Amino acid sequence: MKYEQPAIGVYICHCGMNIAPKVDVENVAAFAAALEHVVVARDYKFMCSSPGQSLIIKDIRERGLNRIIVASCSPRMHEKTFRKACEQAGINPHYLQMANIREQISWVTKDSNDATAKAKDQVAAAVARVVYHAPLTSLEIPVKKSMVVVGGGIAGIQAALTAAEAGYNVHLVEREPSIGGHMAKFDKTFPTLDCAACIMTPKMVEAAQHPDITLHTYSEVASVEGFVGNFKVGIRQKPRYIDASKCTGCGVCTTKCPSKVISEFDQGLTFRKAIYSPFPQAIPNTPVIDRENCLYFTKGRCRACEKFCEAHAIAFDQKEEILTVEAGSIIIATGFQTFDPTPLTQYGYGRYPEVYTSLEFERINNATGPTAGKLLMKNGKPPEKVAIIHCVGSRDSRYHAYCSRVCCMVSMKFAHLVREKTNAEVWEFYIDIRSPGKLYEEFYSRVQEEGVHMVRGRVAEVTDIPENAKNEGRLTVVAENTLTRRILRVPVDMVLLGVGLEPAKGADDIGRMLGVQRDKDGWFNELHAKLAPVKTAMSGIFLAGCCQGPKDIPDTVAQASAAAGEAVSLLAKGTVRTLAEISYIDPDLCSGCKTCIEVCPYTAIGFDEGRRVAVVNEALCKGCGSCAAACPSSAAAIRHFSGRQIMEEMEALLL
Amino acid sequence: MKEFEPKIIAMVCNWCTYTAADLAGTSRLMYPANIRIVRLMCTGMIDQKYILKAFLDGADGVFIGGCHPGDCHYINGNLKAVKRISGVRKLLEQFGFDPARLKLQWIGASEGPEFQRHMTEFVSTVKSMGPNPARDCMIL
Predict the structure, then answer these.
(1) Is the pTM of this model over 0.90?
(2) Which residue of B has its CA nearest to A113?
(3) What contacts A39, CB < 8 A, 6 or more positions away?
């Protein structure tokens, strides 16, 4: 379809000496002047210069041009410039087409005649195509001034606080009974050895008390609808069986409850009750009743908590609720989980009681952990010799090929803590030490100076068969020191496994709901590894923390702030502009086969049951053209890249 | 007799191969002038009929340049292109075209030298195959 009788102006740029001597620009202009619909064709030294643009504007105004061809550099360079000139002169910016005769002709062609011939073809193609250009506009859609942050670890808390400080309402959704995530479980943080709780709990309190943050703990994202600026997020609030408005958090219920359950927070090293708060500084401090282990729910009797609760806060009849909130943007901060080392049977995890994962060891070190922070073995004695194994589940093609980035530093932190608390001998078995970070390398040196044995070699085996009678009852770590090429057999009392990081359980569901892709390892994909590290391919959805890949706390906090910044910049602008070059489905041609709905990677196509036709959601469509290529009725087409436009272009190239 | 100079249509993705072509230019990497580039937003928008149309219009070769798997700007358009193009190959054979006249290649945005190499190679391949047989059989 031709929108108006085309009157085309063609402008061939010399680009100083970049195009002109190689391409015979006068010849090309003369060729263009003879093409159909061309009213004027000129060549000029620098089209992008102010006089060059004025030339176009003047011709549009005086000669009534309504289509413009600029044959010059790549459209990636100056398409915006010339579109603006068109707009300024009063014609739709999409009535411009560029022919790339610099990067793709004059700079890459040896022979001048070949270059000129090729330039003519590309100009002819642009002329043929522009005839079928349509005047395109985009929509401006208002943005909701609130956001949802999925995950209440340090990443989610940081992102929520940053956005709330900017004055936006934040819904912070956390599936556990308390916010805090992994960082709340840690004892010290490398390399400064700050106490994790001392820096984490004030942030948790701040988030809870912030007037613009609504905490949704013990809740999960149940559904997501909508698009950038206008998401509708369904939050499933699991029943706590406690009326949070009445509960004072006194904790009497947890002392009276007779059921003992293995504590998830303490990594299975201690017990909690069936009514519990995961840890003393939990926020909110309202406990939850674990239905599966509660005597009342399983056997129909007990109700001890209810009897002793002076606030009458126990509510056994509480039901699951779904709350729907509106959000302009969404930040994913679902974090990680640690690698389960059980499959690496050679390390004896789960078989030998003194083999611990790094997360278990964090709890052992922690003042609120199973040993109240004393470094003790299960027999109550302090260890005399400790081995730390790096890269467990990481840098291993059988499990995770990637480096988990934090384990070297975590392991060296443990080495320091063991030396500090017990004076035990520490043996670290590493592949390579990775300490790239501010003060990290210094920490590595410090640990070495503290007398830690560093052995470069992957541990072959941890065994309880002793070398000699003296070491009866101890574990023996077998490894090759690859620097000295000697096999070592080191008797130890305790083995710590520096387990790798992997995406948190449930990240796949979140990814599916939000339409955000994950990589082969399950980490969320950023839009661009370098230039858009917190954006995703889904507009309005951002990434913070380990959900995107393993990260230490400083990087996580920095990335969370960045994600909040991106989200805030979207909300602050107040509107989003839809793309102009997007799909359109002609309802007269659509047969309602729904093929396009299946191939759309952005779930941007809906189905109008009344008319039995597919309809594009203009706010979601990115113009990839999957639908257009798949549509058997040619009803779907990408504006500015329609079949007609492409075919005309090709036909002219092949004349 | 003058050597046969084929005309080759290159349908390339704006985000990768088109950018690589620009980079080849900025780096002044010479390649034969037989290539005619059609810029598209994604190889996933290539309708099979575009390829057939190019051959029926007399193109001696069709080159399709997209993002490496996993790098697609639109998530997975390039993978859809793979499937569609393998379908077209079968069709081309039925039409009497050598399917080797159609080439799909992943060229990332930073791969200017690769762009140059693939253009040079493909032009020489098509040259060795001779002109599009449709030129002789049809009125073009």
Answers:
(1) no
(2) B33
(3) A7, A8, A9, A63, A64, A65
